[in-house]
Amino acid sequence: MFVPPAGVVIAVVLLWGWGFSWVPLGLLLGMGVLTGLGITVGYHRLFTHRSFETYGWVKFVLAAVGSMAVQGSVLRWVAYHRRHHQHSDTPDDPHTPHHAGRGVLGLVRGFWYAHVGWVFTPDPAGLDGYVRDLQQSRTVRAADALFPLWVVLGLVIPAALGGVLMGSWAGAALGLVWGGLVRVFAVHHVTWSVNSVCHLWGARPYRGGDQSRNNLLFGVLALGEGWHNNHHAFPTSARHGLRWWQIDISYYVIRLFALTGLAWKVRLPTVGRSPAVQ
Q: Considering only CA atoms, which of 95, 38, 30, 84 is closest in space to residue 61?
């Protein structure tokens, strides 16, 4: 899991000044954060858990930007994640690392399956039943149906920006590679690490019926999603980083939405462990 991202970092260092510069780096980071927030704020906290409410056009934009991460359409992503919560770390969990045998080999198999292996398995039966509420929304259905368009735009936008900012076709190619392809690769592995790493390594301040963990590294890289044990304890909470030092970029964005009138009914845990609406 760590070797390919390390390879990307090495490639950046080796190529600096020889086809890689501030523009491709900015496109990689900018598109990575933007599409990552589409997953964390949109797909996850808004559509899956209804952690806050917002306008229809904001929902459409978040679904579109989340789709640019190329992790599946919004309805399919939400269905899988809701099934994960219903059956967390049981054999019916679509991506648990805990049922692949014992010992080091079982750990490796489980990690691989939770991280990426599950993507290649057939869809479990009854997925549509998890998203019947979202299927009632014309906005969500439209955004879901346009998934191929969003994927293409997620590649075209950084390519176009690279071409304009660098004033060349080479700039467009660099934008496509770094702001498009490499960015998709990086966001994929960060998201998948929440499924794998955050169910194997980290702290468990809330001892529930699963093996979810708070992992500092992915608390930061996954824009707050790595505080996964907190999330499983309070699944409808818009805030996953519950301590002052637990950085949660996604919640900061939701909070900004609320302060500007773009979000309301933001759900947070109370001291008594029950989620509250503010």
A: 38
53 beta partners: 264
Instruction: Please state, in angstroms and rounded to a whole number, the distance separating the CA atoms of residues 185 and 178.
Output: 10
Residues 229-270: tens digit of each pLDDT: 999 999 999 999 999 999 999 999 999 999 999 999 999 997
Q: Which of 15-29, 47-61, 140-154, 235-249 has the lowest mean pLDDT?
A: 15-29
Chain segment 115-162, per-residue pLDDT in tens: 999 999 999 999 999 999 999 999 999 999 999 999 999 999 999 999
Nearest to 255 by CA among 88, 37, 3, 28: 37
> How big is the chain by its Cα radius of gyration, in Å?
19
* Burial environment of residue 240 by CB neighbours within 10 A (0 to 12, 13 to 18, 19 or more): buried
Give me the residue spans of the domains in the chain.
22-277
Q: Which tokens sit at 176?
A: 């496509």
Tokens of 252: 């900061």
Structure-block tokens of residue 20 = 């890689």
**What pTM did the predictor assign?**
0.94
Percentage of the chain with pLDDT > 70? 95
Q: Which residue has the tokens 């790595």?
A: 226
Helical residues (DSSP H) of the chain, grouped into ranges: 3-15, 22-37, 56-67, 74-86, 103-115, 132-135, 138-145, 147-166, 169-174, 183-196, 216-221, 228-233, 249-259
Instruction: Look at residues 146, 160, 178 and name the one whose alpha carbon lies nearest to residue 24.
Output: 178
Tell me the three state secondary structure of residue 164.
helix
Give the per-residue pLDDT at 278.
Answer: 42
Q: Exposure of 4 by Cβ count < 10 A (0-12 exposed, 13-18 middle, 19+ buried)?
A: exposed
Q: DSSP letters along 218-246, please?
A: HHHHTTTTTBHHHHHHSTT-S----STTS
